[in-house]
Amino acid sequence: MSLKLGVPSKGRLMEKTFEWFAERGVSLSRAGGEREYAGRVEGVEGVELVLLSAGEIPRELAAGRIHLGVTGTDLIREKLGQWEQRVEELAELGFGHADLIIAVPQAWVDVDTMDDLDAVAAAFRAEHGFRMRIATKYHRLVRDYLRDCGVADYQLVDSQGATEGTVKNETAEAIADITSTGDTLRANHLKILSDGLILRSSATLYRARNAAVSNGEREALAALVAKLEVG
Amino acid sequence: MTVGLAKRAEAARVRAMFEAAGAQPVETSVLQPAEALLELYGEDIRARAYVTSDALRGEQMLRPDFTVPVVQMHMQHGAEPARYTYSGEVFRRQEDDAKRANEYLQVGYEVFERDAPHEADAEVFALISSVLRGLPVRAATGDIGILLAAVDGLKTTDRRKAALRRHIWRPRRFRALIDRFSGRADVPASRVALLAAEDAFAEAGVEIGLRSKREVEARIAALREDSEAGPLAQGEVELMDAILSVQEMLPHAVEHLSDIAVDMPAIADAVDGLRRRTGALAARGVDVAQLSFEASYGRASMEYYDGFVFGFYAEARADLPPVASGGRYDALTRQLGQGGEIPAVGGVVRPGLMLGLKEGTL
Would an 8 Å CB–CB cutoff place A153 in contact with chain B? Predict the structure, then answer.
């Protein structure tokens, strides 16, 4: 068996990952055409490329079905409880930077801090009869952060895409989402709270701590780590 | 890990003790509608309870406790006074410690009784104490009611008191609010700028979402009112700190709090209640001279309790959850009672832990 390396299967994240490995002498490519999700690895022996959705890579690492994987810090921390015990960060790859933040309508001129958000949540519930809705797909990270900040009387509503539009559509009062430039937030009349940064995320190479490793795979891992100069 | 036969037998034995004390056995569903639990505990409950759903009934939770369904049942068609017991699995999601059980047995005893709350408090504590007799456990007690009374007695605006009451169960946030209201912490710069601005809405842009401009204006007015209200008096903050730091054996705690009540008469009734409870506990054979009391106890973990709170812990095993815990939850019956209310107190034991302590297998 060969060492399995999981890489996002499409888009900029895949291209940037391929570039990062290529700069270190390891060539990754799709085996067939654009539509085939099999991969090829050159420049190091005994490594197999597994193309996966970035969102599935944390789960595959935790289950030990892949030995190495590239995905965002945000996804690892959202999806894996006790993530430090399940994966090891080998290298930050220097791209895919995004901040997970909390944003509210710019028209809320009275809200700038988490403290304000909490006060407004109490007033909102009294006025509207339900808990203030915060749209997000990062339920665990957001809930933990809000608890740390002592925010009460809110509810998280699931939003898997176009989250910035939920406030205008009146399906949420505030959002928690990733942003890199803030342009989409501004275009949707939203502003980031001054202490509303939950996590700085970037593309990272992880090693699964609990994956079974044969002798051959261990050698391949050592060779790859040496070549990449990580870990 | 599933519940073993020995644990079931232990649960049945404890339940029989509760029945012998006069409790009527009741059952509740394992699947509970999520809405009532979310309304009560807020979004945090999702971190502790397993949520599932179907297309007809919507979100359901695997019973994270018995108290809520038992209170709902009583408020719908319970006679007064009432004593209930129940036994069954509760489920707690574990995301940070795989060694903690996510499914375990609880056996509970709940008292709904209008008269002599201190007697009902003592009854529940003494009964649970007798169930645990002989096991290496130590008890901790507290009283959230004293803190609530102290907040009510502060000489400050109703809005500040409401904010403090709302965060009684979040000690860090409570502390931050005290610091803000007393002037120990600075007002955030953005708030100063907002209140100084000629046109607060200069940067407002397009109005979107359900929260209207009128609500924003109302909040600004509230912030203005708050900035004009003077800080909490230093003396009051010191008394609050003095209450929070009370931590000694029960009789000493009663005396200590009585001394504080001389300067803060608002807590006198609550301290009197503590004194009566101490007497009632002693009358039921509890060694109150060796029973510890902490004014802060139960604030971080027992959110709906608003009076007497207690827990029993395995000695020398701080890593284990409490073997038994409980308290008074008068406000909960009001919240779930749809107009009704009744003073209530209760507690649960974990027969699995009791058995482990007996057999030395923990």
Answer: yes
Cβ atoms of residues A16 and A203 within 8 Å: yes
Closest partner residue to B219 among A82, A110, A155, by Cβ?
Answer: A110
Instruction: Tell me the β-bridge partners of B27.
Output: none
SS3 state at A103: strand
What's the mean pLDDT when you consider all of chain A?
Answer: 94
The closest of A77, A143, A86, A157 to B49, measured between CA atoms, is A143
Instruction: Say if B206 is an interface residue toward chain A (CB within 8 Å).
Output: yes
pTM (2 d.p.)? 0.90
Catalogue all structural domains in chain B, each as residue range(s) with its CATH number.
1-136+324-362 (3.30.930.10), 140-183+233-314 (3.30.930.10), 185-230 (no CATH)
Pairing of strands B24-25, A174-179: unpaired
- Whether A140 has its CB under 8 Å from any CB of chain B: the answer is yes
Whether A125 contacts chain B with CB within 8 A: no
Tell me the one-letter amino acid at B348.
V
Task: Return phi, psi of residue B118, to 5°.
Answer: -65, -30
Residue A88 makes CB contacts below 8 A (sequence gap 6+) with A206, A207, A209, A231
Over residues A27-84, the pLDDT tens digits come to 999 877 666 677 899 999 999 999 999 899 999 999 999 999 999 999 999 999 889 9
Query: How much is the average pLDDT of A124-136?
Result: 96
pLDDT band at B3 (very low <50, low <70, confident <90, very high): low
Domain ranges of chain A: 3-96+202-228, 98-201
Any B CB within 8 A of A113 CB: yes
The mean pLDDT value for B223-232 works out to 94
Secondary structure letter of residue B171 according to DSSP: H
Q: Which residue out of B35, B38, B43, B181 would a mutagenesis test of the A interface target, given it has the greatest number of A Cβ atoms within 10 Å?
A: B43
Helix (H, G, I), strand (E, B) or coil at B132: coil
Distance from CA of B96 to the nearest CA of A (A): 6
SS3 content of chain B, % helix, strand, coil (to 5): 45, 20, 35
CATH number of A3-96+202-228: 3.40.190.10
Q: Using CB atoms, which residue from B173, B208, B209 is nearest to A150?
A: B173
**pLDDT reported for residue B361:** 83
Shortest Cα–Cα distance, A225 to chain B (Å): 30
| Amino acid symbol at B145 | G
B80 near A CB under 8 A: no
Query: How far apart are the C-alpha atoms of B294 and B297, rounded to whole Å?
Result: 5
Q: Do A3-96+202-228 and A98-201 share a fold?
A: yes
Q: What are phi and psi of A216, to 5 degrees?
A: -60, -40
Residue of A nearest to B160 (CA): A119
**Which homologous superfamily is A98-201 in?**
Periplasmic binding protein-like II (3.40.190.10)
Alpha-helical runs (H) found in chain B? 5-20, 34-41, 67-77, 117-131, 144-152, 158-166, 171-181, 189-196, 213-228, 234-244, 250-263, 268-283, 330-336, 351-359
